[in-house]
């Protein structure tokens, strides 16, 4: 085990992309075996020290930003244990928590398979993606990480390593009773109603749920995920993509409604129009991108990036179907981009991923933090939420962009302040967005989790009683509240 006790040696473990500042951390422990993970947790329990789990620092909500105590980093848990492939082309990959998401993608591809979830940050550790139930562009077709987790190993706060396989421990309604080692766990899962949309805020809970789903998305507050087994799918024969530019947001939204409807009707088809991704750029996003990509058309008021699986036999007919649908909704068809080869596909992906980096460059120049939403709402209210955004942002002094996973009715609204005064004013508007989304049955976090940055909004979503129920679940596993302090559950609830 590697132990770093000199602050200069572990500065890179003290932050993520949230901008939050760490407390007075004593040391960073980097175990190389599961037994060493247990030892760190047992030491912390004995000495009553806080423990914060550290992945690769790609999170956006401050989950790995330690308030003090110890940091348990999973860097050295980076082994691929096995890859198996079934006769039908599906398979399983078993990896330790510190394996990179990109490595999982590469390894699956080597065996002719894919790992369907496509979180944006390929340098994330796979354990972090499970701990946050991460998702991304392909969640429109394949859902979030949860759907693809078959089993996990998790080190509980007392050091016991719990192995969970999907289907082994299921609740009787909301009640769990099971034994691990010499300890018996008995608790009720929270009984709040989770929104029936893309959602990653709070402990997962529903009647007759699987215990494995409680740990997925628990953000390092119930245990340390150290190993996962993930389901894989056969690699599609071909995938093509396009970026369609529109003269108005109304045309674009009409197009998306039909593309989404057809994709859901034609699910799993490689012969009919069926997107795996539907991604949105508003006019402000395109202005950002035009600085780096001057071929972005001046007259565009929005754009959609799409991906479609196909075969050599169906590629031409599907390209024609997308072309005709875009033409029907008055897309700027002569200015739009359709992939002609794999190089085009890679360029379109680069274009899609370039926006966050350009935003960060702007913020760095101005020395302020962005204000970013992770809101999703039900399909019925999606246009209403867009109207709320425009009502507050159009004509405002802020620089802002809206982009993201429109197929899931989940967009990232980013206010980009020029100074601290604008940042303060922007937070007021952000709070209004949260309130409006919750009235519509939406979520405060669709994919990034709650972390420490959005704790205050979770109570707004579930109420005090919902947070108390979460705190009781945590107390069952972590009675002293040492693991992930300040993440997900407000500290004032930990003793209730």
Integer count of domains:
2
What is the assembly state of the chains in this entry?
single chain
Main β-sheet, in a few words?
A: 7 strands, antiparallel
- What's the CATH class label of the largest domain? Alpha Beta
Structural class: alpha+beta
Total number of beta strands: 19
Mean pLDDT over the residues:
94
- Beta-strand share of residues: 15-25%
Radius of gyration: 23 Å
Poorly predicted ranges (pLDDT <50, ≥5 residues)? none
CATH 2nd-level architecture of the largest domain: 2-Layer Sandwich
Sheet with the most strands: spatial strand order: 16-13-15-14-18-19-17
Shape: globular
The CATH topology of the largest domain turns out to be Uridine Diphospho-n-acetylenolpyruvylglucosamine Reductase, domain 3
* Helix percentage range: 25-40%
User: What is the CA-CA span between the terminal residues?
Assistant: 36 Å
Tally of separate helices: 12
Protein described:
This protein has 496 residues and is an alpha+beta fold. The chain has two domains: 1-235 and 455-496, Uridine Diphospho-n-acetylenolpyruvylglucosamine Reductase, domain 3; 238-439, FAD-linked oxidase, cap domain/gating helix (Vanillyl-alcohol Oxidase, Chain A, domain 3, 3-Layer(aba) Sandwich), CATH 3.40.462.40. Helices cover 32% and strands 23% of the residues. It contains twelve helices and 19 strands. It has helices spanning 34-47, 101-110, 126-131, 139-142, 211-215, 249-265, 283-290, 315-328, 342-366, 382-393, 420-439, 455-477; strands spanning 2-4, 24-30, 51-54, 68-73, 80-85, 91-96, 113-114, 149-155, 161-165, 175-180, 183-188, 224-234, 238-246, 275-282, 302-310, 337-338, 371-372, 399-405, 410-416. A seven-stranded antiparallel beta sheet has the order 16-13-15-14-18-19-17, with helices on both faces. Strands 5, 6, 7, 8, 9 and 12 form a six-stranded antiparallel beta sheet that branches. It has a four-stranded mixed beta sheet with strand order 1-2-4-3, with helices on one face. Strand 8 (149-155) and strand 9 (161-165) form a beta hairpin. It is globular and about 65 Å long. The two termini are 36 Å apart. The model has no long low-confidence stretch (mean pLDDT 94).
């Amino acid at each position: 085990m590697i132990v770093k006790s000199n602050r200069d040696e572990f500065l890179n473990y003290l932050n993520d992309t949230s901008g939050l500042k760490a407390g007075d951390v004593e040391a960073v422990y980097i175990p190389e075996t599961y037994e060493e993970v247990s030892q760190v947790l047992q030491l912390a329990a004995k000495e009553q020290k806080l423990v914060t789990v550290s992945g690769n620092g790609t999170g956006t909500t401050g989950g790995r930003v330690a308030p003090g105590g110890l940091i348990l980093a999973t860097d050295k848990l980076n082994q691929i244990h096995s890859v198996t492939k079934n006769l039908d082309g599906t398979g399983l990959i078993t990896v330790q928590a510190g394996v990179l998401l990109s490595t999982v993608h590469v390894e699956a591809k080597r065996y002719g398979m894919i790992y369907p979830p496509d979180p944006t940050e390929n340098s994330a550790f796979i354990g972090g993606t499970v701990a946050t139930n991460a998702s991304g562009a392909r969640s429109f077709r394949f859902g979030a990480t949860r759907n693809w987790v078959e089993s996990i190993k998790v080190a509980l706060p007392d050091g016991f390593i719990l192995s969970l396989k999907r289907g082994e421990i299921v609740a009787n309604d909301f009640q769990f009773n099971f034994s691990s080692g010499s300890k018996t766990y008995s608790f009720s899962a929270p009984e709040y109603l989770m929104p029936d949309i893309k959602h990653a805020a709070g402990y997962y809970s529903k009647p007759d749920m699987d215990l494995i789903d409680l740990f997925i998305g628990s953000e390092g507050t119930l245990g340390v995920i150290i190993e996962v087994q993930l389901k894989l799918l056969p690699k599609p024969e071909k995938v093509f993509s396009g970026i369609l530019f529109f003269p108005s947001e109304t045309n674009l939204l009409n197009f998306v409604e039909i593309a989404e409807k057809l994709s859901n009707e034609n699910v799993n088809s490689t012969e009919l129009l069926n997107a795996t991704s539907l991604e949105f750029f508003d006019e402000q996003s395109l202005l950002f991108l035009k600085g780096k990509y001057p071929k972005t058309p001046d007259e565009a008021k929005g754009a959609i990036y799409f991906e479609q699986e196909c075969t050599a036999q169906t590629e031409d007919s599907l390209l024609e179907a997308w072309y005709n649908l875009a033409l029907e909704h008055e897309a700027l068809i002569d200015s739009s981009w359709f992939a002609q080869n794999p190089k085009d596909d890679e360029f379109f992906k680069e274009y899609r991923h370039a926006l966050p980096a350009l935003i960060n460059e702007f913020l760095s120049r101005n020395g302020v933090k962005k204000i970013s939403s992770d809101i999703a709402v039900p399909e019925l209210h999606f246009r209403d939420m867009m109207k709320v955004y425009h009502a507050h942002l159009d004509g405002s002094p802020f620089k802002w962009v809206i982009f993201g996973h429109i197929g899931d009715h989940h967009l990232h609204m980013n206010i980009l302040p020029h100074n601290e005064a604008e940042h303060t004013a922007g937070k007021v508007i952000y709070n209004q967005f949260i309130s409006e989304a919750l009235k519509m049955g939406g979520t405060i976090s669709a994919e990034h989790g709650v972390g420490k940055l959005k704790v205050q909004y979770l109570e707004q979503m579930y109420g005090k009683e919902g947070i108390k129920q979460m705190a009781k679940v945590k107390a069952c596993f972590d009675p002293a509240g040492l693991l992930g302090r300040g993440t997900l559950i407000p500290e004032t609830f930990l003793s209730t």
